[in-house]
């Protein structure tokens, strides 16, 4: 039994509240246990300079935490005057993952801005961000379709993300909370599609290493979590 | 009749949801119409260098908006690498206002960090922030009292803020929404205590001017709004 | 009697030296007691991006202090790499105030850059800046008229600013010097036109509050100061 | 046959020139094909604030490219005034990887600064940096041992990194050059120890996805590359 | 005859107004023709970290221009968020030059902050800054002696600076104004002591070169200018 | 005898390795004793905004050191977020010097980017950079001529730089190493052409002064060093 009563293969409760804010084209509040993230998708009718004139769209993501999303208050990145390496890594990951399931040619010369703002953190903020951002993006595309600003749904598959880890006490565990994330020896983020293909796989030994057999065990556990998350997405999305 | 159906002297519906987040010592989600702000109060057992050794506390505030709190997406200040003048002005205002109703000697050498994060904006974000921050701060002090980390409640009075304005069409109006804020000729923010004393008064003619008589009319309207807000605060706070 | 021998309702000596520098279109050295500010107005034949194509002008202001304008040397903002919140607040205030007495349509697509550089500070630097900047701006417009780069004088009224405060010992006082500014319980900046209309009113209780009656007393004292300052402006300006 | 004449399972020629610079405690020039990186290890007898008093060491890495290491000249990060997300990601990766094969308790309160400066780039700069940095770090530790500033060699295993990818034309390929890196559909960086354990695994579908079977194929190819690299390291290092 | 009526060997009129500001320990307004610089010297009873514990003093300088000191308005360095290369070069030059005529051991652990703020520029701002800063620094040291915060005058000699140049039309000329500075082929700044020794010599061919004979001619002209400036300094300083 | 066995008038061994990197249009690795600098020249078919439409070229330089080029590791300027004053001074010097021997009209609207990256430092890095950059730039121009992207060689003369100094123990010495540079009382950088004309002369008394006679002695010593360096350049360059 884990510190919050779950067994090794159990995810925390997931809820996805759609249309959470009134201004963005798409928005959700996703909760995975005590981790809560507001994900919004905003449509901009321009693309960045390096994309102009190609008739293709672009998807870019930003990620941030409220200062007191965490147990200790963090200094705002706006106050520091710079974005940390961790934030940049997460932002690049979210954008890259979403682009893998979108046919950018069908989007046309538009930028989809994804904003993931963590209002409460308890581990797995980056994977919750990806899972929620996929829904916010889909809602935005649905709106564009309804308004006839786009001809075809450009999304090619579902997309969700979860974390798995190798824990000294519990072995391979699914969906790590903050406490577990801090103590796991191996930490892996898995992003997969509805068809069960990998989009991204990032496994890290935290001052530790792992074998091929452990890798296979973690991947298999991750796959089961992804299926569960995509079920939750399907319940709030009709059009795909 | 105003664009949202209110009369000139009417505020928008106000709700204050306490203990909104699990980590901060005090937190609320305040809604004033469609304006929604998460206000948190965090306790730090140190004071800034210029305050050390005086045995007094300090209160400081930060304010931010989610990029898509507004109709058009705003660039994050962390991305720009600097905090705008508008944000700094609001942060200084919130901190100054709260300090006016707190006996800092009773706080002891602690810093109260106030964070106001606007998740949806429809005018009056700075006044909603002050009104909500007062409640979050009070909750944090109650927690310190309960944990015996503080001897006496240091708050000396209630505190709330609202906006009033002079509108070409409607004359003097209370609690401006975004639409009204953009078109008002005179815009005034009023911060008052439960005893009806002024803490701060900021009246600005936007490419316009105003007379003493108009000033008096606006102030009187503001007072009625403040009373209403303090009623709402009293409903969620018991200890004061 | 105040610390510099004045009575409560007395301003410090005011001098405005016009055409202080040779390059700017308009320039003054204004002294209010020991507070000395160089104010210049520069004409730029472009407007900022958000104003282009409207045929209107724009007025923007910058404010700074020499590092040793004050008793203790201050670190330069260029060295810090950022402009402080206080400076931004003052810059925004100066620009907003000047725009209230200028018909920007008559200016045409030009930017008036106002620079207020405090070379010696003894309280009231922002109000002296506004009072001096109004004269520098007027001189610049006169030059444009003389050179036929503008058809009509766009200034609609005189504009001056002063401070008033509520002092524990002296009660309501006019034109606070540095010593008084540090100890006043209520501090108010008043910006008014030649016609006696308010452009901006900013009253702040410094860890204190104030009543409506005190507000009225302060405003009335401020009005008398503004009249005095506008007299001084009229002596150096002929054209208005 | 690949564009540089190699077969799918072939690495580019690897050379590691030790003691390349005279000042650093450890330094190498590593070449992997046309990719050339200067890796240095510097010993600092302090640890960062968050590590003080624990008696443990720390390893941190920085990565940079000469502006003309690439086909097009890049703007220096010092000129931009900020480090890009890509650089931060690589720096964090190098430091994390090296820490996985060092017993930090044996290092004592010292920081090992790793600097990887790419002087010529042709794909695989981050993996070459890790492979070279491991040697530079080992040389630095050997120097500390010789000077009796350390009691025991803290390195627990060899460490090397390589890239593998899934290429439309060639299928699974080892050690991608720049041309291949730009066109590969799946790109994976693998960091492994001398014992064949994983330290880090990062697989990314570039606007593409990959199956478990493809993952297994890539991993197996990566393992063979790592073995080859560790052979090259063993030839220049005696003490391990 | 030069564009302002001078002959080749003639300086512009020089005036040095002492005790120009009330707060700094030493201050002057120096005018060299239309170039006007406020120079102040501030005493700080600490030294920078790299000097601590040596019992020696330090002298450091900052230089800036008001935005409209020049014909075209310049963007403030505080607004840009960074100090330009030109400013840094001048700051380093001023500090280095002053340190050459001060016995830092006699200063004790104090920092002398020199601030040179150009309020009007017409060529030669850096040399006027040095000449004025020497006087401001001397006044500050005199004040320290009078207040018995220092035992002996640490200044070892007078110090002044001027510019000379090689001009296509006029040949070798002394004390270049802005117009001449822009068109000179060779530009040289000379800093010398009262004893006629060089402290710094910087000669630059602006897309041109110069011979040893031209160098000797320029140096000789510079020496005569320095003598004149030191005369002006002697008239306002008694103690040396 | 100097600390490295040289006599006063002796330079350290100089080697210039051409075509050191594969991507840049021109590149060298220059060694002057233990000082090693990679100099590259990159051609950009645009000029900076202030040069556009004049049909002329521009030459600009950047200079940097690897963090561990020196005995103590230096913090990267990209990490600090700003370029130091010393770096800016050197960059401006390199660019200015090279422009003095190039007919920019013959270059056409192109920018030559010079990058000087010090990989090992032992004094004289800025003069080695200039000497090496001249060769890299010449190689780049030769390439443009060969590819018929330029009609005529725009270089008007050879260019090299060296340092000389006045040393307490050794008197006037040529080509100072790091040890000597730190202890010299007078430090002078001399940049000259193949024809023996000065391009730049910077002599500084480090908390010391120097006479005209000493200046002449230093210049004469510098001239002999420059001749030696230009010989080395001629051996690797044919076309001039």
UniProtKB/TrEMBL annotation, chains A, B, C, D, E, F:
TM helices/strands, residue ranges: none
Catalytic activity: tRNA(n+1) + phosphate = tRNA(n) + a ribonucleoside 5'-diphosphate
Domain Exoribonuclease phosphorolytic: 10-139, 157-224
Protein's organism: Priestia veravalensis
Keyword Transferase assigned: yes
Gene that produces this protein: rph
Positions that bind phosphate: 86, 124-126
Molecular functions (GO terms): 3'-5'-RNA exonuclease activity; tRNA binding; tRNA nucleotidyltransferase activity
Known EC number: 2.7.7.56
Designated name of the protein: Ribonuclease PH
Keywords, alphabetical: Nucleotidyltransferase, RNA-binding, rRNA processing, Transferase, tRNA processing, tRNA-binding
EC category: transferase
Subunit structure: Homohexameric ring arranged as a trimer of dimers.
Described purpose of this protein according to its UniProt entry: Phosphorolytic 3'-5' exoribonuclease that plays an important role in tRNA 3'-end maturation. Removes nucleotide residues following the 3'-CCA terminus of tRNAs; can also add nucleotides to the ends of RNA molecules by using nucleoside diphosphates as substrates, but this may not be physiologically important. Probably plays a role in initiation of 16S rRNA degradation (leading to ribosome degradation) during starvation.
Keyword rRNA processing: yes
InterPro entries recorded: ExoRNase_PH_dom1, ExoRNase_PH_dom2, ExoRNase_PH_dom2_sf, PNPase/RNase_PH_dom_sf, Ribosomal_Su5_D2-typ_SF, RNase_PH, RNase_PH_bac-type, RNase_PH_CS
GO terms, biological process: rRNA 3'-end processing; rRNA catabolic process; tRNA processing
NCBIfam families: RNasePH
Similarity annotation: Belongs to the RNase PH family.
């Amino acid at each position: 039994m884990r510190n919050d009563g779950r067994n090794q293969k159990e995810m925390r409760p997931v809820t996805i509240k759609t249309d959470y804010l009134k201004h963005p084209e798409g928005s959700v509040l996703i909760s995975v246990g005590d981790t809560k993230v507001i994900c919004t998708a905003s449509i901009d009718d321009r693309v960045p300079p390096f994309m102009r004139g190609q008739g293709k769209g672009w998807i870019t993501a930003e990620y941030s935490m409220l200062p007191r999303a965490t147990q200790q208050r963090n200094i705002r990145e706006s106050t520091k005057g710079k974005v940390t390496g961790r934030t940049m890594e997460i932002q690049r990951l979210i954008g890259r993952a979403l682009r893998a399931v979108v046919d950018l040619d069908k989007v046309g010369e538009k930028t989809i801005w994804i904003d993931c703002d963590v209002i409460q953190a308890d581990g797995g903020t980056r994977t919750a961000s990806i899972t929620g951002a996929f829904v916010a993006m889909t809602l935005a595309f649905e709106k564009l379709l309804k308004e006839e600003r786009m001809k075809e749904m450009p999304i090619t598959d579902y997309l969700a993300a979860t974390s798995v880890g190798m824990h000294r006490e519990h072995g391979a565990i699914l969906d790590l909370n903050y406490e577990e994330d801090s103590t796991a020896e191996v930490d892996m983020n898995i992003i997969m599609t509805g068809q069960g293909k990998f989009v991204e796989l990032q496994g890290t030994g935290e001052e530790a290493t792992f074998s091929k057999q452990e890798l296979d065990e973690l991947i298999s556990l991750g796959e089961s979590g992804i299926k569960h998350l995509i079920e939750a997405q399907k319940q709030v999305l009709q059009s795909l």
